[in-house]
Amino acid sequence: MEEKSFQQGLVSIITPVYQAERFIEQTILSVLAQSYQNWEMILVDDCSRDKSTDIIRYFIEKDKRIKYHCLDTNSGAAVTRNKAIELAQGEFLAFLDSDDLWNPSKLEKQLAFMKEHDCKFSYTRIRIIDSANNTIKQTVPIPSKVDYNYLLKRTVIATSTVIINRSTLPYFMMPLRRGGQDYATWLQLLKKVDYAYGLDESLTSYRVSSNSLSSNKFSSIRQVYEIQTEDEHISKIEAICNTIFFCIYAFKKHFL
Fold it and tell me: What are the C-alpha distances in Å from 128 to residues 3, 46, 185, 201?
């Protein structure tokens, strides 16, 4: 594929949208509040049937850095994110899901961290919030860096915390999976760079509903095994061992 030229210093924020009317306004406002202002927000709609489009168009009229594209057919988060990546003009890619929130200093602090450590792939700690923005849990400290083998056993990278300097990486897109495409992408990238570096500060609020937390965990466990065997072509025995480590870590992180 032909190499693209990117706008230096510009952060392209990748936000998939589907039935997001309840929280999308708060998410956009958290971007508008950023102390680092050289960004574009690319919202790609996976054929929402609610008022998401109306809310987004209101903000587009206020700020032309906010951009909107609607897919022709409902295609899932991987296709939605990939379309946003295709449209992105920035040197940096940042991921922000449509119900999550950023602290106002998130971009500024994380970009400074990446420059200081000369890193291509970074993530931060999160705090977990409910539908009313109340803190459910302050998460445990994150490691200062992780490599491919570490990530096979622990999924410590939350999507809405990630920033990637793609001017220094080969072109990439997310694997076309209905679930777990973010985890599959981080593994893909960690075969191209030695480490992803962690900024151990809660700069992103990750939203969960209390009744979905357990089901999400079971889904994540299944996806870890499937991605390792189907995408990474790891043996079933090794993938089972890795998944067991994942379960132990997830239990400690959320319940201890």
Answer: 37, 25, 22, 13
Q: What are phi and psi of 168, to 5 degrees?
A: -110, 5
Identify each DSSP E strand in 18-146 by its residue range. Answer: 39-45, 66-70, 90-95, 101-102, 121-129, 135-138, 145-146
CATH topology of domain 7-209: Spore Coat Polysaccharide Biosynthesis Protein SpsA; Chain A (3.90.550)
Contact present, 149 and 194 (Cβ < 8 Å) = no
**pLDDT tens-digit profile of 160-202?**
999 999 988 878 899 988 788 999 999 999 999 999 999 999 9
More confident site: 247 or 148: 148
**3-state class of 188 per DSSP?**
helix
Find the Cα–Cα–Cα–Cα dihedral 88, 120, 170, 80, rounded to 10°: -40
Q: What are the phi and psi torsion angles at 224 (to 5°)?
A: -55, -50
Bigger pLDDT: 139 vs 80:
80
- What are residue 118's phi and psi, to 5 degrees? 50, 50
**Burial grade of 251 (CB within 10 A; 0-12, 13-18, 19 or more):** exposed
Predicted confidence band at 215 (pLDDT cuts at 50, 70, 90)? Answer: very low
pLDDT tens per residue across span 49-92: 999 999 999 999 999 999 999 999 999 899 999 999 999 999 99
Burial class (CB in 10 A: 0-12, 13-18, 19+), 5: exposed
**Cα dihedral sign for 103, 163, 20, 56?**
positive
Q: Are 174 and 164 in contact, with CB atoms under 8 Å apart?
A: no
Where are the chain's structural domains?
7-209
